[in-house]
Design brief:
Blueprint lengths: L12 H23 L8 E3 L4 H5 L3 H4 L5 E3 L1
Parallel strand pairs: 1-2
Length: about 70
């Protein structure tokens, strides 16, 4: 998701990362609903703590889809 040695980074990676998390959240919520047990599946991500991560991530959108952000 962010530039670095050996990591290919494209501008569209920023919104695509958010869209991927949204899709995973939707699938987890759908599974929980199908099971009908009142479960909520947790979605957590591990992140970098540097300026590059903040610059190359839609942090203002991610919180809608994840339960935990581990730095």
């Amino acid at each position: 998701n962010q530039p670095g040695a050996g990591n290919i980074h494209r501008p569209e990676d920023v919104p695509n990362f958010t869209l991927m998390l949204k899709a995973v959240r939707e699938e987890l919520d759908s599974l929980a609903e199908t099971e009908g047990k009142g479960n909520h599946y947790l979605l957590a991500i591990a992140t970098g703590a540097d300026e590059a991560y903040v610059k190359n991530t839609e942090l203002g959108e991610l919180h809608k889809y994840i339960d935990f952000l581990n730095i």
